[in-house]
Amino acid sequence: QVQLAESGGGLIQDGGSLRLSCVASGPAALMKDWAWYRQAPGKERELVAEILSNGLIEYSDSVKGRFSITISRDVPGATLFLQMNDLGPDDTAVYYCFARRWGDDKMLWGQGTEVTVSS
Fold this sequence. Notes:
The protein contains no helices and 11 strands. By secondary structure, the chain is mostly beta strands. Strands 2, 4, 5, 6, 9, 10 and 11 form a 7-stranded mixed sheet that branches. The protein is elongated. The termini are far apart.
């Protein structure tokens, strides 16, 4: 069973940078897709960036050019990263790590890490 645990959130000033980490403990090879989502206060959860099983990396338009998603394969586990640059108040949200499993497409979520950007 894979479990996800995020870290790296915090309070940052407008224009600053943060790097989020998500440690996937367990057999990470069971998971095919990886992603970061975020949920701002009063808004729905939205996709920020993803790494798909075919190697494709995609970003939402709002973060393209500022954020970078990477994954480190630390067999048997893995660590998913989100480098966030040029942060603005609109990036304030709880950021969630996400993974989807091969076979049954079961979705796993981390507990979230809060990012607050002050203007």
